[in-house]
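I have been asked to look over a protein record a colleague put together. Alongside the sequence sits a line of tokens, each denoting a local backbone shape. Please read both lines and tell me whether the tokens look consistent with the sequence. Take the sequence as given and treat only the tokens as open to question. I have pasted the whole thing underneath without changing anything:
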Amino acid sequence: MRRRSWNSLRPSSSSGFGNVALARTSGIGTAREAVEQRRLPNRHPDRLWRGPGIGAPCAMCDVPVQTNEMEFQTQSARDGGAPCFDVYHLHVRCYSAWELVRTKVDGHPPS
């Protein structure tokens, strides 16, 4: 198996942060909307990993996280019923926007 170098994981102009669709859709407003529409939870994930993308669509912007991009994968337990986890794949930029929305209320940190 070929070992990936750091350069192979760095976003390029053809994907990742250079992706025009991602640049247009990611941001605080989109993250807030994703939380309000319950596409993303409004609490800290129960499990969190980061690594190369697997091509899964981002839970916030719906643009696939390509294998040459870094992603955060989060898992959050569902309330009630049988124990199971909802899994979310996020671009690094989308994860950062979600963190800002999730940890702040009306632009102020929670008390």
Summary: Helices lie at 6-9, 20-25, 28-36, 92-103. Residues 92-103 form the longest helix (12 residues). The first strand starts at residue 47 and ends at 52.
